[in-house]
Amino acid sequence: xxxxxxxxxxxxxxxxxxxxxxxxxxxxxxxxxxxxxxxxxxxxxxxxxxxxxxxxxxxxxxxxxxxxxxxxxxxxxxxxxxxxxxxxxxxxxxxxxxxxxxxxxxxxxxxxxxxxxxxxxxxxxxxxxxxxxxxxxxxxxxxxxxxxxxxxxxxxxxxxxxxxxxxxxxxxxxxxxxxxxxxxxxxxxxxxxxxxxxxxxxxxxxxxxxxxxxxxxxxxxxxxxxxxxxxxxxxxxxxxxxxxxxxxxxxxxxxxxxxxxxxxxxxxxxxxxxxxxxxxxxxxxxxxxxxxxxxxxxxxxxxxxxxxxxxxxxxxxxxxxxxxxxxxxxxxxxxxxxxxxxxxxxxxxxxxxxxxxxxxxxxxxxxxxxxxxxxxxxxxxxxxx
Length: 385
Ligand SMILES: NC(=O)c1ccc[n+]([C@@H]2O[C@H](COP(=O)([O-])OP(=O)(O)OC[C@H]3O[C@@H](n4cnc5c(N)ncnc54)[C@H](O)[C@@H]3O)[C@@H](O)[C@H]2O)c1
Prior knowledge:
The chain is about 50% helix and about 10% strand. The protein has 17 helices and eight strands.
């Protein structure tokens, strides 16, 4: 298969490598020539690394490297069967690009965007054949993370969605089908991991050290919320939250935090600037953790039940299937357990009580319990029985 990748930043490079390793010919383009040169060097280095780690033979690395076709004009993508766009996250830039691409490619070409937050339906409206347009959302780093969200636009023909699911399986990835709604499924369900942790911090219930400890030690998450936000970068993480908040017509469940906004304003963007919630010029002071099991459980239970509420609501609104929601959070963001199974383990009635307790305490819509949980609790049902 001949695959085009447009935009050779972090994501474009990852996607190009995934396609080349799946035996596709990969035509790559970036509007900025130096980025193309940089990507060439990075992709060679990435293959060398796999050879060094004995994950790839030298011969195979050479074959894979020969599958990249570096081009300096969009016109050279004319005979691609699938083109995945990974340029900067800006609606006008992407629409302009797709408008041009759709005049170059054949009627059989599938045009796809790797956008994290823009409407696929809106992007589809910029091409000549919107029925052949779709969202293919990889996670960073695309070479490593197995999950890919497949997001049909309102205009996408059903058969095309099925073909794309199969293509992504052939890439060795785990595709899930998701409705075209803000944040798709992973970024939407994950919001309370950050938002609720920030709220707990702002209320002075615990500090960042203790919240991160509670979520890793007691919750078994790979990283605590503050470590993870520092890792992602506050500019990116704040922007995603703000976009989702606006796109959900200012639903208070997704309200961004001033604390994080101030970090962005200060330029304390996290690891990449050496400072975020943590100061990376010094060792992290573990002595500041308050090893109080009751407090730790309270923090973990509160954040987990907010995540469960979000997953339940996504299922209720048919954003993705039950099984795909579980795959999304375990394969896309490495959660220790699927959230719906976790709800079953805690007990649906208990989840409802925890949410109602928060709601009764704060009287804020942010803590409203999803109607699916309440109905299941009345009926004594579980997600997996
Ligand atoms: N970085 C992530 O964690 C992540 C994860 C999933 C999805 N995404 C999405 O993937 C896309 C790319 O993200 P990124 O982090 O790789 O960005 P990036 O800024 O690292 O790279 C973007 C690249 O696009 C090129 N570019 C810009 N305008 C162009 C144009 N008109 N034509 C061709 N090339 C152009 C730039 O030169 C740059 O090389 C965005 O839509 C982003 O939302 C990012």
